[in-house]
Amino acid sequence: MNPSATVRPGLVTRAGRAWLHFWFAPSPPEALGLARAFFFGTLFLVYASEDFAGWGAVDRVFWQPIWLFRVLGLGPASPATLSILQVLFRSSLLLAAVGLFTRPAAIVAFVLGTYLFGLPHNFGHTYHFDALLVFVFLIIACSRAGDSVSLDGRRGIRPAAGPEYTWPVRLVWVAMSLVFFAAGLSKLRHGGLAWFASNNLAIVLTKAHYHVSDADPIGPWGLWIASSPLASKALALVSLATETLFPLALLGRVPRAVLVPAAFAMIVGIRILMGPTFGGFLTAFAFWVPWTAILAWATSRSSARYLMLFDGSCGLCQRTVQVVRRLDIFDRIDVLDVARCWPAVAARHPTLSREACLDEMHVVTPRGKVELGFGAYRAMARALPAAWPILPLLYLPGVPSVGNRVYRAVARRRAANCAVEQSSLRTFDSGSPHV
Amino acid sequence: MPVDADAHVPDVSVVVSTHNRAHLLRPCLHALLRQCVDPSSYEIVGVDNNSTDDTSAVLAEFVGGRIPITALREPRKGVSYGRNAGIAAARGRIVAFTDDDICVAPDWVSRIVQAFRADDRVDCIGGPVLPMWASLPPRWLDRRHWSPLSVTDYGGEPFVITADRPKCLLTSNMAFRREVFDRIGVFSPDFPRSQDHELQLRFWAAGGRARYLPGLIVHTMVPESRMRTRYHRWWHLQHGRMCARMALRERTRPDGSLRPVVSPQRMAFGLPAFLWRELAEASLQWMRAWASRDRGARLAREMEVRHLLGYIAERRLRIVGHDATNGAGAHDDVTMRPARFVLVHALMALIVGGSLWDIARDREHWPFSQYPMFSSVERDWSHRTLRIFTVSRSGNEVPLLDTALLQPFDQCRLSTSLIGMRQNNSALQTVLADTYGRVASRVVPRGDVAALRLYDLRWKLTPGESTDTHPDSRLLLAEYRPTGNDR
After folding, report:
1. pLDDT tens, B376-385?
2. What strands lie across the sheet with B12-18, from one edge to the other?
3. Cys-Cys crosslink for A344: which of A8, A435, B38, B233, Cβ 3.0 to 4.6 Å?
């Protein structure tokens, strides 16, 4: 026996391993790709209507440059130049979202984002949360976030899980943790325990209704809380605890499950109760979403298959099946010709009748439920991404009734016009696990 | 390529792979044609490795002469591809290699043939490659710096080369028995440089014996561009990378012999620990060499460090701190290129370090801001703010609360900005004029705004209530009345 096998590694070794594990434990590329797509896509929508060009026309008397602009010698560009820059910026966000030229797009987003986000701070700095976005741009620019869930990725081989897809997410986590921790620490440093033990938050919530922010509170709930000393102190305590303890979210799933939703709710709560809007910052929460678990769940869901039974002797049915095949990009629908393979269907689903299946479209859902006619089409729509936009409409009251009538009308016409044709479609033989 | 049994088989096939060096190729071929052996005993296989100059024409000039010359074109760029194409076309029992910048001696082919006939156990022979300087070399460019020049001279005594004494021969003066390639394969295209060394590693690992012949001399032209330190620095980095691909340092014992297999190494920071140790030692020796007046010695130490840096940069760091398993449950090594590893940590240091610096110093430093919003404790149930009002023709005052009118400002930023200029009346006048310009462009009709006023407003707050429209007191700080031009 190798004696070294039983030797417990030293503290430094274990700390080193924990460090490396935190940053570089392999992750699937899809997790980072989805976070990237969600982050940039949402950010594109958030900043689609933001007009930075106006800063170019503001009088220089307002100009109070922050250190970065002072050091780099930057000033406000002309409105025309800013208009061009913001178009480029938005384009880079869109390109990064869809993953086309991801790295150059992220670099452009970083450079232009730093300038455009930083520009307003030179006209009155207000400590907004847009700084984090600049860091996320930089992190994505240095990462391989475009390997998956991207148009770039479609051109190559699907990459395996690796450390390159872990550290960018973790670094965004750490950057966000520092934001919250710094905010909490600053409160404790400047206000101490009185920050939550006094009327502080009640006063702040009341002041918020005097047009002090970039937006006004959405409702009067802030005033309601301010009228209750206990409620305002409790809210202050929870907020302070969330901010100060947020770095614990880096250490494990349980604190993450508590602190991340709490922080998200706090940001949303600030918007509702006090007015400040941190829309861009909220998008960075995309990196906290457990995409890997969601992917695993979705994969297990997508492996569940639908079985479509159709009359292969009918030309209309064959054309329908051809359309379904084209739309079934995730390959979740099996198709079986009842006219040719009835024994296989009967063996798997003894309760079905051949006549009924020939008379009406049948779909067996992954749970074994048999849907007919309009219901069959609606069930298939759940498996066809192209149909997802209209899927909610199919569940509206009255729609199934109308749908069934239309289906029967078409079916009657089909029965009248149908010519017996030999199916040329791919069908499953009786050995298929799905029949 | 199988050799046709019926055709005449020469003793030696000389393979010359060339790329865009037509001006050097002609003298090289002339030297090869002037061999003092039976012309039927050897052939020349010239491979144009995707050249864009006159190489093909130069090769064509020599085809059809007394000495059989086969001219080939290999479209895949890379000397390994070129030489492998030459091996495939070679008909001789011995395949000799030289380069387009080499001038072989008249007895080169005959010495090769004699050497192989003299010792059946030897499958490879090579000899010194001596320099022909294009200009006077700098003083520091002594024998310690010959490797980047493709020059080698192991002395005047012949010796056998095996895995126990793995001295690398240069392809510009080397020959193999043809069947060697059937045993160990041909040149690896994965090695854009040092492919001859990699081939010899396989040769030695397969138990091959080579012989160094001091009399088998060729000369190579050393251009001025290779006499510069910049070239040598670049070459050692690249050579280090190639050696890393061969795991050469892991395979080499302290006495210089080769291990049959790479044994498990003690790891540190994702690499074999001895690499870090060697880098530290080489760095230390380089620093010590700075005390020396011998520039050649200093550069030699520097090149050793560069070689190690290239070696480490090419290796993938094995990140050991995880227990990842793949679907089959087997342990996977998580690896990363050192450059990426350093980049990631530099990024971390920038973002985390910058933020922690601000946190520690309790200061604001966008984008490393510590976000001290609402940090101070509000104790007074009162509110004070600066607010701009529009004054209509009829004298009505309306606070500018509509964000659309204040654009690109919002209330928060405008207040912050105004507070910063509160004591400067002329600045406030400019602020109001600027605000008027932007407000007037959005108010229809424009003439409705007779003036803008800046007030310092104070409220006495009531818990849970808002009396925003009725301040308890207000102080006029500045007023701006537009002139005719402003309208």
Report:
1. 888 899 999 8
2. B69-73, B42-48, B12-18, B94-99, B174-177, B124-126, B210-212, B159-161
3. A435
Residue A259 pLDDT exceeds 80: yes
The string of pLDDT tens digits covering residues B317-332 is 777 544 433 333 334 5
Give DSSP secondary structure letters for A294-354: HHHHHHHHHHS-EEEEE-TTBHHHHHHHHHHHHH-TT--EEEEEHHHHHHHHHHH-TT--H
User: Quick check: B355 and A175 CB within 8 A?
Assistant: yes
CB contact under 8 A, B334 and A26: yes
- Given CB atoms, is B336 within the 8 Å cutoff of chain A? yes
pLDDT digits over A190-215, tens only?
A: 999 999 999 999 999 999 999 888 88
Chain B touched by A118 (CB under 8 Å): yes
Amino acid, res. B13: S
Chain B neighbours among A 151-190 (CB < 8 Å)?
A: 162-164, 167, 171, 174-175, 178-179, 181-183, 185-187, 189-190
Q: Do A129 and B371 touch (CB under 8 A)?
A: yes
Assess whether pLDDT exceeds 70 at residue A416: no
Strand partners, B99: B17
Q: Which residues of B touch A187 (CB under 8 A)?
A: 372, 374-375
The pLDDT-based confidence of B260 (bands split at 50, 70, 90) is confident
Task: Write the residue in A120, A125, A210 that is nearest to B408 by C-beta.
Answer: A120
User: Does the predicted model carry a pTM greater than 0.90?
Assistant: no
Mutate to test the interface with A, among B377, B424, B474 (most CBs of A within 10 A): B377
Q: Which of B372, B438, B466 sits opposite A210 (nearest CB)?
A: B466
Mean pLDDT, chain B, rounded, equals: 87
Mind listing the pLDDT tens digit for each residue in A24-47?
Answer: 888 889 899 999 999 999 999 999
Q: Which residue has the tokens 């009734």?
A: A401
Selecting from A138, A195, A207 the residue whose C-beta is nearest the C-beta of B461 gives A207
pLDDT tens digits for A339-367? 888 888 888 788 888 888 888 888 988 88
- Mean pLDDT for B120-139 is 94
Range of weakest confidence among A280-284, A291-295, B42-46, B244-248? A291-295
Q: With beta carbons under 8 A apart, name residues in chain A contacting B264.
A: none
Q: How do beta strands A306-310 and A333-337 pair?
A: parallel
The pLDDT of residue A423 is above 80: no
What pLDDT score was predicted for residue A311? Answer: 84
Q: Looking at the partner chain, which of B401, B407, B416 has a beta carbon nearest the beta carbon of A124?
A: B416
**Alpha-helix residue ranges (DSSP H) falling in B362-454:** 403-406, 411-420, 425-440
Instruction: At A13, list the tokens.
Output: 């070794």
Of chain A, the percentage scoring pLDDT greater than 90 comes to 47
Give me the CATH topology for the region A304-417: Glutaredoxin (3.40.30)
Domain ranges of chain A: 21-165, 188-302, 304-417
Residue A105 in contact with residue A48, Cβ under 8 Å?
no
Name all domains of chain B by residue range, CATH numbers in brackets. 12-223 (3.90.550.10), 228-320 (no CATH), 337-376 (no CATH), 382-480 (no CATH)
The residues, ordered by sequence, that sit 6+ positions from B357 with a Cβ below 8 Å of its Cβ are B365, B368
Give the residue among A287, A288, A245, A26 at the shortest CA–CA distance from A136: A287
pLDDT at B6: 52
A to B CB pairs, distance under 8 Å: 232
Contact with chain A for residue B63, Cβ under 8 A: no
Residues present in chain A in total:
435
From A349's Cα to the closest Cα of chain B, the distance in A is 34
Task: Report CA torsion sign: A207, A213, A219, A222.
Answer: negative
Cβ neighbours around A260 below 10 Å, total: 19
Any chain A CB within 8 A of the CB of B357?
no
